[in-house]
Design brief:
By secondary structure, this protein is mainly α. About 75% of the residues lie in helices and about 0% in strands. It is found in: Mitochondrion outer membrane.
Length: about 90
């Protein structure tokens, strides 16, 4: 015995008709494609962030540390020159 929905149609009724419609299939395919694109985008973005972060740590942080040390040395030399009363010109920055 077939199920009868409120509209009097046999079969799955409005839900089956909706699932069989081309508009539903297109929307489902679009949602699936969007989800796949989002996953690939997130993976690529994460990979790019990892590369940028490690490159920054390996190349830029040591440079910043060395520049800070150099500035401290220049400041120390200028302090010592001021204390000793030296009239030697300060190195340009």
């Amino acid at each position: 015995m077939a199920a009868v929905d409120r509209s009097g149609e046999k079969g799955g009724g409005w839900a089956k008709g909706l699932a069989d419609s081309s508009l539903y299939q297109k929307a489902r395919r679009a949602a699936s494609n969007s989800a796949r694109f989002s996953q690939k985008l997130m993976w690529s973005t994460g990979k790019a962030a990892w590369i940028a972060g490690t490159t920054f740590l390996v190349l830029v942080v040591p440079l910043i540390i060395e520049m800070d040390r150099e500035q401290q040395m220049v400041d120390l030399e200028s302090q010592q020159a001021g204390l000793l009363g030296s009239s030697a010109p300060l190195p340009s920055k």
